[in-house]
Amino acid sequence: MPLKPFKYLLPETRFLHAGRLVYKFKIRYG
């Protein structure tokens, strides 16, 4: 399942996902 169309149609979701990952790491290793 290619994520190329999603990357161009919904760029905000990528930032939200990255932010969520950073938040998880902050809670875990913070």
How would you describe the overall organization of this protein?
With about 30 residues, the chain is mainly alpha-helical. It has one domain. About 85% of the residues lie in helices and about 0% in strands. It has helices spanning about 5-10, 10-30. The longest helix is centred in the middle third of the chain and has 19 residues, at about 10-30. The protein is rod-shaped, with a radius of gyration of 12 Å. The relative contact order is 0.12. GO terms for molecular function: DNA binding.
Short description:
This protein is mainly alpha-helical and 30 residues long. The chain has helices at residues 4-9, 11-29. The chain has one domain.
Quaternary structure type: single chain
Low-pLDDT segments: none
Describe the largest sheet: none
- Summed over residues and divided by their number, the pLDDT gives a mean of 74
Number of domains: 1
Strand content: under 5%
Which structural class do you get from the secondary structure elements?
Answer: mainly alpha
Structural descriptors:
single chain, 30 residues, 2 helices, rod-shaped
Task: Indicate the topology.
Layout: H1 4-9, H2 11-29
InterPro entries: MAJIN (IPR027816)
GO molecular function, one term: DNA binding
GO biological process, one term: meiotic attachment of telomere to nuclear envelope
